[in-house]
Amino acid sequence: MSAEKLLEIKDLCIHYITEDGTVKAVDGMNLEVGKGETLGLVGETGAGKTTTALGIMNLIPAPPGKILQGEVIFEGEDLLKKKAADIRKIRGNKISMIFQDPMTALNPVMTVGEQIMEVVQLHKKVSKAEAIKHTQDMLELVGIPGARWVDYPHQFSGGMKQRVVIAMALACDPTLLIADEPTTALDVTIQAQVLDLMKRLKDELNTSMIMITHDLGIVAEVCDKVAIMYAGNVVEYTNKENLYRTPRHPYTVGLFNSIPSPDSDEDRLKPIEGLMPDPTNLPSGCPFHPRCPNATEKCARVIPTPIEVTPGHFVKCLEYAPGGLH
Amino acid sequence: MAEKLIEVKNLKKYFNTNKGLLHAIDDVNFYINKGETLGLVGESGCGKSTTGRVLLRLLEATEGEVLFEGKDINKLSKKEMREMRKQMQIVFQDPYASLNPRMTVSEIIAEPLIVNKVHSSKGEMNNKVAELMEIVGLAPRLAYAYPHELDGGRRQRIGIARALALNPKFIVQDEPVSALDVSIQAQILNLMADLQEKFDLTYLFISHDLSVVKHVSDRIAVMYLGKIVELTDYKTIFNNPLHPYTQALLSAIPIPSIDVEKKDRIILEGDVPSPINPPKGCRFYGRCRHRQDICKQEAPELKEMGKEHFVACHFAGEL
Amino acid sequence: MSSANLSKQAVALPTAPMKKRSPWVAAWKSLRRNKAAMIGLFVIVLLIITAIFAEQIAPFGYDDQNLVNRLQPPSAEHIFGTDNFGRDIFSRIVYGSRVSLQVGFIAVGIGAIAGGALGAIAGFYGRHADNIIMRIMDILLAIPGILLAISIVASLGPGLTNVMIAVGIGAIPGYARIVRASVLIVRDQEFVEAARSVGTSDFRIVMKHIIPNSLAPIIVQATLGVAGAILSAAGLSFIGLGIQPPAPEWGAMLSEGRQFLRDNPHVTTFPGLAIMVVIFALNLFGDGLRDALDPRLKQ
Description:
Shape of chain C: elongated
Largest sheet of chain C: none
Order of helices and strands of chain A: EEEHEEHEHHHHEHEHEEHHEE
Number of strands of chain C: 0
Largest sheet of chain A: 8 strands, mixed
Radius of gyration of chain A: 21 Å
Shape of chain A: globular
Order of helices and strands of chain C: HHHHHHHHHHHH
Number of helices of chain C: 12
Number of helices of chain A: 10
Distance between the termini of chain A: 32 Å
Oligomer: heterotrimer
Strand content of chain A: 15-25%
Largest interface: A-B, 47 and 44 residues
Radius of gyration of chain C: 25 Å
Helix content of chain C: over 70%
């Protein structure tokens, strides 16, 4: 974690206040993204990945969402303290987002060129001719012939649409790209194309990226650092090498054991027992303790804090805390 | 020699659409042995789900035979078919859409028992429902819950219990874990393996996820645009894939490890073409790295390249 | 590791059976939180009570004439005043609620049942049945509703029953279209296919799976439709084709009062207000019902 800091999330807490109770969607999060670095944000449904992304963009729908505390420092400034007008200048410009479903991320009644131009003209003072030129360049960049800027989204296939979405996200040369499950809706061979493209562009443009995914395979391929989330908590946070060679948190270990690997010949998977907890009624102590194979009675009492187990390897588990599990 | 439970011969399923004839399944042949799992992999639109449905006659085949224990189910009368349905069941992909939102868990599981008048008394039936719930790992207290109150994993367990209710011999698993989280997916996969062993079930396991298919299957068929392009046992397909599409598909899987030596990834050009009015020659022609003129003219037949290793490629073994 | 086992047991303690919370119950709960809808429901309930106990509530009979006291402005004795025959307007409005309710519910009943059945057949069987039924509906829809009702009443003759039939027929195409659309959606849901895969008959599929899941939009439309039916009936009575005097119908009262609009506005104001309040209440309730039943608006 030596790269120059671009984004720093400090002690971020985001809650949703609903009729059924309060959901601690993000609970005391600390993360950093350096320039040119890719952070993988991994977790299952309801872990708080997307909420984190929306939190960074200051787009949490309120109500029911509420940012209780914390800072999101981007290029030295706290985004959460910015005025709405100022943050709009950052969104889509310096920070842009790629959504999961390319089918719904594009407006069906506008040509893809118009949609990319809209972003360009919003943030940059350019003539119409320049905007069109830039739009075509962006399409070429993602492997779509520039002349297709006059086509409508329905004239593109799913994979091509996601390329358009990527072109739109990159149109203003962002320094941070947030990709929320960008390939989940795509077929495997198309996913390979899109991931390949994203990796290439990231290196070419030196863009930092937060890659939200549930797929540890994708993380292994594109990320430098990884944060594993469970029930609003970052339970493990380290670089890719540490995570894949020495996973520490029982949840991370459980995730690895749950995936059928194409390269080994296991007979039975070793799934994590139990179910995701009810988000409005999280277990006491460590939220993972009811499903944890190593849990002790202390885990039900004490809320773990992140421990730096080895340099740069943070684990939120009492096993590594002073005093251990007992 | 293992006994064949299902055999599919020259199966075709076409749909009339506004744009032309959609070749969902185009002359497919395979069999499934008793007690085995055949994996059916392919990308969206390749016809794998349609195959599952035609096998159960939830869709009528356009041409060809589906033999279940030697009997062609396409020739059965409506009444005979209803009797046959007890033997063959399906678990759906989407555990949200496949359960009637206005019925409770126990009503959903009881439905096959009610419509087939399996039990004479209500008490007997309730016992059976309770037993099924226990088998699939649903707590008894959930009997009166509605699907919308449950998470994806438990909903999928309801779907499995419903499929098991009539003691079938054969179950089509149509992407049963695609909509589930990784940790829940593993639970369901284990459950299905246990059930297969316990009740001596035969599965057709449909999925787009090769890792999952490999984990559950004995043999694997790879489909592309309505045709089977490669069919062999799960080990061979990973160690010695012969069809260029299978090779590309395998290399596209992101592997959750940083220590495995990454093979050179084959990135396929373009998208899966439309199954409406497909080209005359090899269906994979437009995306294949090794295409030759003959591929454009002639569709390759499924040939046996090694023992029980079938490939539909003019240049199989030479690439 | 005995302590570990302990903590796990604590988590796995047997829990009480889950409460049976059907989607209908959930919808009712969400409806109860909607204040506007509850006000609407309150007014509707009030109206129903008024209609049932009209004899007890109304201080006078609806056709008690008192020519000496004609066209009296509102007073302590006649709180809404009297009309040109000296009849108590409040009492006539109270009795009129019976007619309005009858027309509203029965006309909607005719429309919803006939339209619902036609729409369900069209949606479930598709092809020819669909084509024939929906083209007939299109023809009906091409004629303006009120014109259709007028021509039906004109040919059947005026009167309460014929008004209900006329308004009901006019409403059929609307219900048919809604039911057809929702049957088409439900028909292609996987749970219907699942039912088919276990050998469920068509009849059971329609009754158990399709109808319960396509009911919500009909209920909403019917609630809003009651308001429309009351208005249509009032309109027909206003132009003299509906309920015949001396029966107290709100639309007819408006019609009779219009000659006195300049000097005695109360004769028309109160029946007009009655119509407005009831329609408003029904619409509030109907809108609330739509929000509560429409799964897309949930969360």
